[in-house]
Specification:
The structure is a single chain. This protein has 614 residues and is α+β, with helices and mostly antiparallel strands. The protein has 5 domains: 3-145, Immunoglobulin-like (Sandwich), CATH 2.60.40.10; 156-260 and 288-299, Immunoglobulins (Immunoglobulin-like, Sandwich); 314-427, Immunoglobulin-like (Sandwich), CATH 2.60.40.740; 464-493; 499-612, Four Helix Bundle (Hemerythrin (Met), subunit A). The chain has 9 helices and 31 strands. The chain has helices at 3-17, 142-145, 269-274, 469-497, 499-523, 527-545, 555-564, 569-587, 595-612, and strands spanning 25-28, 32-34, 38-45, 60-77, 80-95, 99-103, 107-110, 113-116, 120-125, 148-149, 160-165, 176-184, 190-197, 204-208, 218-223, 226-240, 244-248, 252-264, 279-291, 295-299, 311-315, 317-324, 328-330, 335-344, 361-363, 367-375, 378-391, 395-399, 403-408, 413-418, 422-427. Strands 11, 12, 14, 15 and 16 form a 5-stranded antiparallel beta sheet that branches. The radius of gyration is 40 Å and the shape is elongated. The chain starts with a helix and ends with a helix. The relative contact order is 0.08. The model is unreliable at 11-20, 130-152, 264-280 and 432-463 (pLDDT under 50).
Amino acid sequence: MNKKVVLTAGLVFFSIFGVNAQVKCQATAPSQVAVGQSFQLQYELSEKASRTPNFNLSNFTFLGGPYEQYSSSTSFVNGRISSTSSHNYIYQFRAEKEGTYTIPAASFIVDGKEVKSNSLSIKVVAAQAGSNQRSAPQQGNPRARNQQQATPSISKEDFFIKATVSNSTPYVGEQVIISYKLFLNPNIQGYRVQPTDFPTAKGCWKYELSQWSNNMPQREQLYEGKRYLSIDLPSYAVYPQQSGSHTLSPLALDLAVQVPVQMQTQDDIFSMFFGSSPFSMGSQMVELKIASKSVTITAKETPAQGKPDNYSELVGNFKLSAHLKDTKIAAGEATSILLTISGNGNLQTVEAPQFNFPNAIDSHTPEITDNIKPSLSGVSGSRTFEYLLIPRAEGEYIIPPASFSYFDKAKNTYITLQTEEFQLHVTKGNGNTTAYTSSQATDIQQLGTDIRYIHSTFLPTYSVFAFSYLFWGLLILPIILLAIVLFLFYKKAKNQRNTELYREKKAAKLAQKRLIFAHKLLKLHKTDEFYVEISKVLWGYVSDKFHIPLAQLSFDTAQQKLLDCKMEPQSIQTFLTTLQQCESVRFSSQTDITPDQMYQKTFDFITQIEREIK
């Protein structure tokens, strides 16, 4: 009978009717590895485990596992056939620190019973300069020594980030979209992505158009004739604020990919019967640091010919709408004009169009409301300005139109939009119109009380002065005057006691006025004066809002006060970082943040404080 047939029959017989011996678990690992070197910790069992342990070894970084492998072998000695099988569970680690460490015994569950391995000792030595560390081979296990790990057909060049620019030569103020796409070898079995450095560009406004998530769009794609798994990373909208070359720094990632690995066993029964060995598939976690290339855009000025005096420095397509809330009111009452600019572009830099209000109408700095919606196609939305109006006298008033200008790239011309002309009918008001205060307006004094009508009358003739009306009036008048004086002193003292409360309520208004002035300085390219004003905004706002005298203000007192008010740690860190960067550029002129980013951070901080502390 053929020898191979006999061996096969024997193997089947023993696999069915053989008696299970006591299950053992043997742990193997290299006795010595270098810092930064990855290695395998392998556990060999004669039976399949129903539960495997999880590891959290200090001084070692877990890279992956367990990867299960099965092998069997049959021997024929002196007419007797013997068969053995093993289940190997492999964990991948990387050494991080020099020293000698003990890996404790691991517990596996086999057929409902606990099986423990032996413990191991591993010595970690310093990495040799210029050496290329690889996974160490397993020691102490004959079967492990006979296994050879095949090199995966995957290289570092199979993983990269590609940046795409929608327009490399935009106008100043024009929207440019920078898209990033991650390309991966399609044969990987899994991946993890962690951003480390985000793109920045001096002299540009930047908006993130989408958020990082675990479900970013992915698909298979052909690139330069090769198949990849492509993942759409968050894209950005960039607006150059001045002409010239602007470089966007690279987007950098920490990438961990699980690559397939072939494991060959040389002493199994198939090698004995057929002279060859199949490959069992495992996997290995590989960590990479990758980054995109820098992106450079060259911005150019819009045409000088035909540029309006009120040009907003916006490029795109916009709409303007406005309406008067009330067309008929009484003198001393308040109404408002709502003006909205909408479209695609950097609307957060738009300043309020100017109305030429009649002298008899009090107006104040408009309140701004933004409705900005970033999307993959860019930034769009609207900015609304509310102008508070209080007429002082009755009459018919005409409010001339306000205008807004932008550059239409498609038509290669400047477009000027105008509001309609508003008519306001003001009727006679009462003499004691109550003062009106809005969130953006300065306190308005009572109207109609600055001019009093004096009615002159002749004193009646009394035959007897005593106990006459004049007598009683002159007697009571000093008492009334004294009461008024005491009341005024009391009110003044009360106001002084409420100074801190008054400063707290006005903190946001004063900070917004200073921010508007800082933005004007930024437009005029007065950078030094801009940073001085931003410093005043931050210090002044914290002083007024949290009742800290300016003489006692410091980083420590401000931080402690914010902590006492139970502010979010992220908001506190934003304030301290922004202030430190501002002070750094004022005194050393060294900073990585642009004036536009400094302005935006200051604006966001104040908005966050007002949202958290009401």
